[in-house]
Hints:
Elements: E1 8-13, E2 17-24, E3 27-35, H1 39-45, E4 51-55, E5 58-61, H2 66-89, E6 95-100, H3 102-111, H4 114-118, E7 120-125, H5 133-146
Parallel strand pairs: 1-6, 6-7
Antiparallel strand pairs: 1-2, 2-3, 4-5
Helix pairs in contact: 2-3
Amino acid sequence: MQQHSQKTWIMAADDVSAHIFARQDGHLKSVSDLFAEDQAEIEMTNDTVGRTGSSPTERHKYEPSMDQSRQRELSFAHQIGILLNDAASRQAFDQLVIVAAPKMLGYLRGELDGQAKQHVVAEVNKEFANLKGRALEEKLLGILHDSDIMSRPPS
C-alpha cells in the first residue's frame, strides 16, 4: 500500500506581508506572497497625515490613527484568510503551519473558516515575515523540524 505524503504549507505573516511556502522534498517552495496596501500610498491618501507643531521650530508628522492602522491589519488578515480558506477548500494542503506576529496571529484565527482550521497543525508566535529569501526559509524549516511537523498527521 502506497503511503500518502502530507502536503504541508507554512506561512509567515505580519501586518504588511505574508509569505506562503509548501514543503517539498525537505525544501520550501514559494506558493504565494501577499502584501498589504503600500504604506506610501496609504500616507498619500490619508487625510490625517500632515505636519503640525507646537512651536515654530518643532514639527511632527501626524500618524494614522490607531483605528486606521488596526483596520488595515484586519483587512490584510481578511485577505490572507480568503486565500487560505480557498486553498483549504481545494485541498491544496493537508497541514497548515502559521507563523505570525502576536496581533496578526489573533486576527488570522478569526478569519479562517472551519475547514481551514481543521488543517492547522501549529501556530507559532514569531515575527519572521520581515526576513527575506534563504534566511526566512531556514527559520521556517527550523520550525518544521523542531516541532516534528514533518511527520505529524493532521488533527
